[in-house]
Amino acid sequence: VYPKQQENWSKPWMIFLLGTQMIVPCWLGLVYLKQAPNGPSLILFLIGFAAMADSGAYFAGRFLGKTPFAQKISPKKTREGLW
Q1: How far is it, in rounded angstroms, from Cα 21 to Cα 26?
Q2: Angle of the 12-35 helix axis to the 39-64 helix axis, nearest 10
Q3: What distance, in Å, lies between the first and last C-alpha atoms of the chain?
Q4: Alpha-carbon gap, residue 74 to 18, rounded angstroms
């Protein structure tokens, strides 16, 4: 069963810890990119690339998806969408 100890993952301190481990590096990366030559263009490219990848995964899973993947996390997620 995912996760094994589900009650541990919903504690406020755990959510804070995991959240900061995700947000801080992303924020620092954006600050670094903004200071680089053509920084705003790079950030726009990065956001566009992520949006296109996410949309592509959605449509691949929607039209090609047959094999379920991680049903408890996201019921309609498929392996084809993952790849």
Answers
A1: 9
A2: 130
A3: 23
A4: 20
- Examine the pLDDT at 63 and tell me if it is beyond 80: yes
| Token pair in block for residue 44 | 């726009």
Report how far residue 71's alpha carbon sits from residue 66's, in angstroms, rounded to the nearest whole number.
13
Residue 23 has pLDDT above 90, yes or no: yes
What average pLDDT is seen over the chain? 85
Which carries the bigger pLDDT value, residue 74 or residue 17? 17
Alpha-carbon distance of 61 to 50, in angstroms, equals: 16
The 3-class SS string of 16-47 reads HHHHHHHHHHHHHHHHHHHHCCCHHHHHHHHH
Q: Rounded to an integer, what distance in angstroms lies between the CA atom of residue 52 and that of residue 38?
A: 21
